[in-house]
Amino acid sequence: MLTVIIPSYNDANNIPLAIASASKIKHVTEIIVIDDCSKDNTEKLLRKLEFNNPKISYFKNQINIGSGLSFIKGIQKSLNPYIILLNSDDFFIPNGIENLFNYVLKNNLDVGYGKMAIKKETGIHKYSHPGYKNYSYINQRNELKDLLIFDMYMPSFGTIIKTEGLKEFYNVKYYKKLMHDYGGEFKAHDYDLFINLAKKRKKFGFLNEVVCIWCPKKESQSGENYFNSGESCYESSFLFNKYSKNESFSKDTINLIYKRIRGKYNNKEKYQIKSDKFSFHYKNFLNKINLLLNHNFQKKI
């Protein structure tokens, strides 16, 4: 009933743990691995795992297309009514995902998510995100507004999505347009998807339980380089510009969103990164914020 989709690139050292954690989940009947044209021994390893585990389906891209398009490719190949993403260098807590899946089924959720913990050199630690609630809930918050205020508090690999309706719009054409509108490679494809589903007013639910473990690396898409280079700032700016249309936000909400994205920009400035190819999204964001404040509250940042 549940499909796990694992995009992977040159991660043969870590992917066995990811697959093992997915294999132990009772309701997982498909583990789709999309190898994004790896140059290490991923293919040899996965062919062997696929032979010994009927749940695994392995596919290798002929060229490197990125994790976003690889994830979409996995969705298109899925046969189950529910899917969940898993990064090849992270892993699930099997009982946590089981509990989350039962929670999704019981409440007929379109999107259900839990919390993640973080793996460090000293072990696995609690991860606190300002967007987390300290109680489980069903449709008790404005997820669109809160995703824009708090950033990505829904762990991409701790979120189960109903595939019904998803395949109708979330496809290669959608993602290529996303990259075209952004002006290049867009990394926060999971964040965009969750905001999109929130914009569509899908039924969201949160289970107040740790369901997955994040293993951050400096070079990963969610690592230090992504934030220090300014990419995180520019992608967040782009997503606000894209999804704030026709939304009525309070002055406090607008100021909180501004504070978060401004903080990303200030962080980028500390590292004096010269390449600012996508900085125009931040400038557009500032203009949009001021337009909203001027129009609704006669105030300017």
CATH architecture descriptor of the largest domain: Alpha-Beta Complex
Indicate how many domains the architecture comprises.
2
Q: Summarize the helix and strand pattern as letters.
A: EHEHEHEEHEEEHEHHHEHHHH
Helix content: 40-55%
The biggest beta sheet, please?
Answer: 10 strands, mixed
Give the number of DSSP strands. 10
Overall geometry comes to globular
- SS content category: alpha/beta
Task: Output mean pLDDT.
Answer: 93
Plain-language structure description:
- With 301 residues, this protein is an alpha/beta fold.
- The protein has two domains: 2-214, Alpha-Beta Complex (Spore Coat Polysaccharide Biosynthesis Protein SpsA, Chain A); 224-297, no CATH class.
- It is built from twelve helices and ten strands.
- The protein has helices at residues 15-23, 42-52, 67-77, 94-106, 143-150, 166-169, 172-182, 189-199, 224-228, 231-243, 251-270, 279-297; strands at 2-8, 28-35, 56-60, 82-85, 91-92, 111-120, 123-126, 137-138, 159-162, 204-214.
- Strands 1, 2, 3, 4, 5, 6, 7, 8, 9 and 10 form a ten-stranded mixed β-sheet that branches.
- A hairpin with a 2-residue loop joins strand 6 (111-120) and strand 7 (123-126).
- The model has no long low-confidence stretch (mean pLDDT 93).
What does the secondary structure layout of this molecule look like, with pairings?
Elements: E1 2-8, H1 15-23, E2 28-35, H2 42-52, E3 56-60, H3 67-77, E4 82-85, E5 91-92, H4 94-106, E6 111-120, E7 123-126, E8 137-138, H5 143-150, E9 159-162, H6 166-169, H7 172-182, H8 189-199, E10 204-214, H9 224-228, H10 231-243, H11 251-270, H12 279-297
Parallel strand pairs: 1-2, 1-4, 2-3, 6-10
Antiparallel strand pairs: 4-9, 5-10, 6-7, 6-9, 8-10
Helix pairs in contact: 5-8, 5-11, 10-11, 10-12, 11-12
